[in-house]
Write a structure and sequence with these properties.
The protein has helices spanning 2-16, 28-41, 60-69, 75-83, 100-111, 126-130, 142-173, 183-196, 212-222, 235-242, 251-259, 276-282, 301-306, 322-331; strands at 21-24, 53-55, 89-94, 115-121, 133-137, 200-205, 227-233, 266-270, 286-290, 310-314. By secondary structure, it is of the alpha/beta class. The chain has 2 domains: 2-170, Glucose-6-phosphate isomerase like protein, domain 1 (Rossmann fold); 183-331, HUPs (Rossmann fold, 3-Layer(aba) Sandwich). Helix 3 crosses helix 4 (75-83).
């Protein structure tokens, strides 16, 4: 059930942010793919908005054209490349875990930035090793496919329940909740995420002049888990860190701009110059820093490792930094 909850968390996260689910498999697994997609687009147990899901087993013209022109092993990969977008989820269903077209579909999904879930039989198959979240059903013969169907139903039920509750809350409030939250609300959400087995990623910064480096780093951070929480330094702490001329933009505007980015799930403002105290409170599974911190002593490392979290370094865009942008802006005549 841990794997089922992780897989459901990935589906919820993608659908919540406007992503979609692509499902595929062969034979009985093709029927399961169509069944699962239909439950998400239509309904499973509850009345709620339709959820974006596509079975890659239904378009006979595409299947036969791709098989004829490229080979049957490409029938799913080609469709994933055409229809999949970064942040979507690919669900591969296979009893053996050895089908070449299913494996190729998962490889294409990973290369395109999709998260990958496999519903697969036991035995240490290549598909189990290849998928980001393998859900392994330990059974044989017809019982294996029946077990896989039970997994698919569980995924639909968990996803539907989570998103139907959110939709009801939004309808009651009259509008979607802002991604900029207060600490009490964030900590309450953290408990719900923990119960669901969602992997929480934290990153923080001043975000004084939002630029491409920030966008790329936040996208990389989001790929490390199911929920990305961004801490934005308050104005007083930015002055401590950067000097009296900063921030250039007040914290309310900085927080709203960061929240507008697709990769970001929640934004919270904190007033301490460094994040040790907020990490103790939130206890994210992953704390991220820029690659320029490699080899440097991080004061928050002891805090994160004490509660069992990890620290990951994020890639930088060469030549792009807030400090350099500020220098160039101040050098403009009349600025």
């Amino acid at each position: 059930m841990d794997a089922v909850e992780r897989a459901a968390g990935a589906l919820v996260s993608s659908l919540r942010r406007g992503g979609k689910v692509v499902v595929f498999g062969n034979g009985g697994s093709a029927a399961d793919a169509q069944h699962m997609a239909a439950e998400l687009v239509g309904r499973f147990l509850r009345e709620r908005r339709p959820l974006a899901a596509i079975a890659l087993t239904t378009d006979t013209s595409a299947l036969t054209a791709i098989a004829n022109d490229f080979g049957f092993e490409h029938v799913f990969a080609r469709q994933v490349e055409a229809l999949g977008r970064r942040g979507d989820v690919a669900v591969a269903i296979s009893t053996s875990g050895r089908s070449e077209n299913v494996l190729a579909g998962v490889r294409a999904a990973s290369a395109a930035g999709l998260r990958t879930v496999a519903v697969v039989g036991a035995g240490g198959s290549e598909l189990e090793a290849l998928a980001e979240i393998p859900v392994v059903v330990s059974a044989e013969g017809p019982a294996l496919q029946e077990g896989q169907l039970a997994v698919e139903h569980a995924l639909c039920e968990i996803v539907e329940a989570a998103l139907a509750e959110e939709q009801a809350g939004e309808d009651e409030a009259g509008e979607a909740r802002s991604k900029v939250v207060e600490w009490d609300a964030l900590l309450a959400e953290r408990e719900r995420w923990r119960r669901k087995g969602l992997r929480v990623v934290w990153t923080n910064g001043c975000f004084d002049l939002l630029h491409l480096g920030h966008v790329r780093s936040l996208e990389a951070a989001r790929r490390l888990g199911d929920v990305l929480v961004v801490g934005v330094n308050g104005d007083a702490s930015v002055r401590v860190l950067k000097g009296d001329g900063r921030p250039l933009v007040p914290v309310e505007q900085r927080a709203e701009l960061v929240a507008a980015l697709e990769a970001v799930d929640r934004v919270v403002v904190f007033d301490e110059p460094t994040p040790e105290d907020v990490l103790r409170r939130l206890r994210p599974d992953v704390h991220t820093k820029g690659a320029d911190y490699e080899g440097r002593d991080l004061p928050e490392r002891a805090v994160v490792e004490a509660y069992g979290g990890s620290i990951e370094l994020l890639p930088l865009v060469p030549g792009v930094s807030t400090t350099e942008l500020e220098r160039r802006l101040r050098s403009v005549p009349g600025a």
